[in-house]
Amino acid sequence: MNRVFRTKFLRSAGLQLGLAMLLGTLGAGPAQAQLQRLFPGGSLKGVATFGDWPGITINCIPYTLGPGVRVLDAEQRVVLTGQLPGLQSAVVFLRDASGSVFRVWLVSPKDPSLATVPSAASNCGFGAG
């Protein structure tokens, strides 16, 4: 008899916990969508194409990836440098004093946090390669 009571109690407690978690994630969805990422001062946005290491082209202007570069995806996970060649994405990036790119965030072009980031210079005008 005690065993049956315990199983019913655990089952109902498990269902209540599952329901609470489901309602919690549904309620947090819109709030999380409104959160904006903050990028450091001096960040610029553009469209990047990663070429052979250490080449990167942002808005049709070639740059060099610096030593110790960190590339982060939309979920803030590190992207390994071996995965970069051929990748094209909207990015936010930072350059160091020598002009090398040392931090890159891969973002969605529809990301609302891009509204506060200035655009990088572009050389993609008419007739550009």
How many helical stretches? 1
Number of domains: 2
Estimated radius of gyration: 23 Å
Largest sheet: 5 strands, mixed, barrel
Low-confidence stretches: 28-32
Q: How many strand segments?
A: 5
Descriptive report:
- The protein has a five-stranded mixed β-barrel.
- The chain folds into two domains: 1-35; 44-116, OB fold (Dihydrolipoamide Acetyltransferase, E2P), CATH 2.40.50.
- The model is unreliable at 28-32 (pLDDT under 50).
- The chain has one helix and five strands.
- The chain has one helix at 2-34; strands spanning 44-50, 55-58, 61-72, 88-95, 101-107.
- The longest helix has 33 residues, at 2-34.
- Strand 4 (88-95) and strand 5 (101-107) form a beta hairpin.
- The protein has 129 residues and is an alpha+beta fold.
Task: Describe this protein with a few key phrases.
2 domains, globular, alpha+beta, single chain, 129 residues, five-stranded mixed barrel, OB fold (Dihydrolipoamide Acetyltransferase, E2P)
In short:
The protein has one helix at 2-34; strands at 44-50, 55-58, 61-72, 88-95, 101-107. With 129 residues, the chain is an alpha+beta fold.
